[in-house]
Design brief:
The protein is an alpha/beta fold. It contains 13 helices and ten strands. Helix 1 crosses helix 2. Keywords: NADP, Oxidoreductase. GO terms for molecular function: oxidoreductase activity. Belongs to the shaker potassium channel beta subunit family.
Length: about 350
Amino acid sequence: MEHRALGRSGLWVSEVVYGNWLTHGETVDRATATACVRAALDAGITTFDTADVYALGAAEQVLGEALRGVRRDSVELATKVCLPTGDGPNDRGLSRKHVLESCHASLRRLGTDHIDLYQAHRFDPRTPLEETLVAFDDLVRAGKVRYVGVSEWTAAQIAEALALADEWGLARRIVSNQPQYNMLWRVIEPEVLPLCRREGIGQIVFQPLAQGVLTGKYQPGAAPPVGSRGAGFGRAPRFIGRVLGDAVLDRVQRLRPLADEAGVTMAQLAIAWTLATDGVSAAIIGATRPEQVTENAAAAGVRLTPDLLTEIDRTLGDLVDTDPTKTADMFAVKAEWARA
């Protein structure tokens, strides 16, 4: 496993991060979840990502239990706050009240005294930005949070937060952004990535496999394989259904010879592609089986040639979405995808 600095911060993270959205506490039983975490550790993964909203806290709890007995200083724990965790008006957002209360709840569920990377899960237009930044800063000064990041913020939102942090001399500037990013969904490239490169903010990207579509296991004109996320239950089919059109699946199948040429699986090709992007520090993988973790973790250290990267772009062509107005909309896809 290779490790990279998170932006220009002093925190190093594993190139492949293990995340548990839509799995732990939801579609994967605890024994399997623990086996997946152990497979991640065996593969050299040291960075684990979760959120208070995943399975309404159960994902954090399962992850904390799976890591019990692991030396705390040997791993980096990242979690998030913002999205609704209850029905009350203060059970969401980035108010001081919700940030502090959610942080303490996450610490209890994870079974730790500190969070290595605490992230604003989305931007909260209802709360003054200075209130949010001071709340995060207080957690850093209290030793409960080491570094601060955001997820799916626009370039303008990130820039405003950086300016306020500099003006007030806060203990920690934003060091990371967690956007959706893969071969098909590149909306951070026009605005977010250039800003973050200048400011030393590293990207920890999620959905590098586009919900499994880029693994090539979904065939155009065919039903999703039994046991796959596309054929699953709960919320998974709703998310992946947005990128299961035949036009996308046909083009993805054309990537298979490129993966063969590189000597990697389709999944490893997709993950390695994200890691080839300047400014990306790590890619988050999810899994429902330990063997998936092992396969995907092997993408760390894979270096794709410039010619291969160019051929991937040529193959996907106009299916690639780079519209920066969709930065914070993880479900928006090109109209032709929905019609396909």
